[in-house]
Amino acid sequence: MTLPLSGPLEASDINVELGRSATAVMSIKDAATGVYGAINTCSPYYPNSAAPHAYSEWYGYNHLAPCLNSNFAFSPVDSGNVTDFLRSDTLDYPSVVSTNKPSSRDQFTLSMWIKIDSNIINTNVGYITAFATAGSSPSFLLRFFWSSLFDSGTGTYNNNFYLQTGSPTYPGFDSAVNVSDSNNTGITGVSDGLTLSQNGFLDANGYFLLTCVVDFNYFGTADYVKYYWNDSPLTSQYSTPSGNPVKPNYAGYDLAVGGHYEFEIASGCLIDGYALFIDTALNQTDVTAIYNGGAVAPIATYTSISSNLLFYNFESANPNLGDETGGTYNFDLNEINIPRRVQPPAA
Fold first, then answer.
1. Judging by DSSP bridges, how do beta strands 225-229 and 73-75 pair with one another?
2. 271: CB partners within 8 A, 6+ apart
3. For 12, which of 5, 66, 206, 258 is 20 to 30 Å away at the CA?
4. Cut 0.85: pTM above it
5. What is the mean pLDDT of residues 182-205?
6. Taking the domain 73-342, which CATH number applies?
7. Where are the domains of the chain?
8. What is the pLDDT of residues 2-56, one digit of tens each?
């Protein structure tokens, strides 16, 4: 049994959910603080132990809920011109993260579960994550996004994921992977056309794991950036960069997840299990491990590859769904406008 999400809720309902007699004497304080049995924090919704205690905290509680890898996903819904996402705009990395702040390294990996949702796509491009300065004219250092466009030169549709870098100092470049079936037949299930919606190689809730591996040791070669759909390598397009490699800067730029900055659009997709490996270029075995047979892997799987990571599972709503939930840097992202955590998550 699971308690309802709304409507009447009585002491007898909570008693039964806790495995007690419906008519037993019940104190809402004792119930919330574990006197009648430990609160199951694996439930997607559960009461907190802090006073004041309220019946409303019990909506959705499931005392027997299994401990899933993920109960929620992150929805950076784009409503008109409003961008709802997470970013570190009021956080100063040197002071907040102290000596544990990440430093730029020669390798890094971005990996996250993504669900393209036709209900929230209202454009042909969406930013998933970025390092940039805030403001109406942001200066970006690195951004990861998708684009669905018709290429008049080739007469084909390009459903691409891009890693794009640039800064006022260094010239930028684009690394892209076209996930349309004509380019990656039999892996993605993305039909050739003006849409990124897909119908194959998804988990039970419609998500896929997208991983982008960057290794500066291979700068100027095709091995500089690699992409994986689930745990299968994608055939990428590659633009030879000019100038110097551009590495993430964790002190001078803000990190954004689910969008970019003012006057930019949101990602057009649901995100779960966002991982940024600070100093590691994941290999095929690593990607297979975090793919975990099509389910969000336990955090121990991620940290066994490298403890130098930022990991957001979007499980916490209080105080912030941008709580860092598994890495080593212990900082949170600010909510910009009204991003939401939603269900279903990645399976």
1. unpaired
2. 73, 74, 76, 112, 113, 114, 128, 257, 258, 314
3. 66
4. no
5. 80
6. 2.60.120.200
7. 1-67, 73-342
8. 898 889 999 999 999 999 999 999 999 999 999 998 898 878 788 988 889 999 9
